[in-house]
Amino acid sequence: MATINEIQNEVIEEFQDIEDWMDRYQMLIEIGSEQPALDEKYKTDQNLIEGCQSRVWLQADQMPDGTLHFQAESDALIVKGIVALLIKVLSDHTPEEILAAELYFIDEIGLKEHLSPTRSNGLLAMVKQMRLYAMAFSVTHP
Fold first, then answer.
1. Active-site residue numbers?
2. φ, ψ for residue 18, nearest 5 deg
3. Which residues contact 116 (CB under 8 A, 6 or more apart)?
4. What is the pLDDT of residues 30-53, one digit of tens each?
5. How far apart are CA 31 and CA 25, in angstroms?
6. How far apart are the C-alpha atoms of 89 and 22, rounded to whole Å?
7. Domains of the chain, each with CATH number or no CATH
8. Interhelix angle 21-33/4-16, nearest 10 degrees
9. Cα–Cα distances in Å, from 123 out to 78, 86, 134, 139?
10. Phi/psi class of residue 56: alpha, beta or left (left: φ > 0; alpha: ψ in -120 to 50)?
11. Over the stretch 109-135, which tens digit does the pLDDT of each residue have?
12. pTM greater than the 0.70 cutoff
């Protein structure tokens, strides 16, 4: 299993050859569209991430091996791609690994500087929610 940093480096590599931001947005949309749809039963108010302009649902489940598995969906194409990247990087790691991770790929691929302020806030809200899940699971399942 690749580490969080190894996966971040893969993501950075995928984006580094794409100079034009319209092409990067297109890549985000494609990444989002490849993500499996979220089961309707998880599209609840409690799974909605506050702070996102568009609607984003995030579901976290702890697997028998102690890792967290994330699933998400958004009604906005670019946001769906962003959350898909976060899932790619953080899903299937332990709560401790998630909490210790420094998510440098966000800056490296230029996401923060090329997102509107509202999307940037949404991105931070998604990261925060994933960390909150990790914190909750690390307390309830030592």
1. 52
2. -100, 105
3. none
4. 999 999 999 999 999 999 998 877
5. 10
6. 23
7. 4-140 (3.90.1010.10)
8. 130
9. 11, 9, 17, 25
10. beta
11. 988 888 888 888 889 999 999 999 999
12. yes
